[in-house]
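step=encode ok
step=design start
structure_in=
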């Protein structure tokens, strides 16, 4: 494709988006379009096709880790980071919309918003919500990814994320893919240990939410955390 033809194609795609958003685009075209801004001078359609072939769907691409994305031909480290960023952006957007509609932190609000972050994910993922002293949500941070049935909860990563966001209160969340939301003994013990370590840094762990594919459980509401 010549540079002129290439530019005309991108302009047509932009005009289509300006007219009707993504409603008239296929998943392949949506990926092709958003890759315009990460891969500015190449044809992104073949890359979009390879991504969908590997991960099965648009959501599968967005849920993939940076290492997995980088295995796809045409995806470098910067583009992998760019694609991974979208899930975090979606999470913050949903939380902020609900925050404006319903007021500050509530368990149901956060639970329903975070549920989207764990949809169609086949590995355990740890997410941290950073809140200010008024319990307004500042940021959503993905802490780590684990295996199908295990993840490490790194206190240093939690402290680093909280300090970076000037957060005095945090909520931890992770998922049990293909299982129930019932916390394991390790979940409970690691939560209590993390709560103690954070308290020494003047950071309050408000709750630890565990998600299955259909619901979630609050360790605080289940009386599995110490009073704070």
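sequence_out=
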């Amino acid at each position: 494709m010549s540079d002129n033809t290439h530019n005309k194609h991108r302009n047509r795609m932009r005009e289509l988006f300006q007219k009707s958003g993504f409603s008239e685009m296929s998943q392949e075209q949506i990926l092709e379009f958003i890759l315009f801004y990460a891969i500015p001078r190449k044809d992104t359609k073949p890359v979009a096709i390879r991504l969908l072939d590997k991960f099965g769907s648009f959501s599968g691409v967005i849920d993939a880790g940076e290492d997995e994305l980088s295995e796809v031909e045409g995806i470098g480290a910067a583009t992998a980071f760019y694609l991974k960023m979208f899930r975090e952006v979606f999470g913050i957007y949903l939380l902020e919309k609900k925050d404006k509609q319903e007021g500050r932190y509530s368990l149901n609000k956060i639970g329903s918003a975070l549920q989207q972050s764990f949809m169609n994910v086949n590995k355990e993922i740890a997410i941290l919500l950073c809140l200010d002293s008024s319990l307004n949500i500042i940021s959503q941070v993905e802490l780590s990814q684990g295996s199908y049935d295990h993840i490490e909860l790194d206190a240093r990563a939690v402290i680093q994320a909280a300090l970076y966001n000037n957060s005095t209160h945090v909520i931890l969340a992770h998922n049990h893919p293909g299982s129930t939301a019932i916390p394991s003994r390790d979940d409970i013990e690691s939560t209590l240990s993390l709560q103690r370590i954070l308290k020494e840094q003047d950071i309050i762990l408000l709750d630890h939410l565990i998600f299955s594919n259909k619901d979630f459980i609050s360790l605080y509401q289940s009386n599995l955390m110490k009073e704070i």
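step=design ok
step=annotate ok -> The mean pLDDT is 84.
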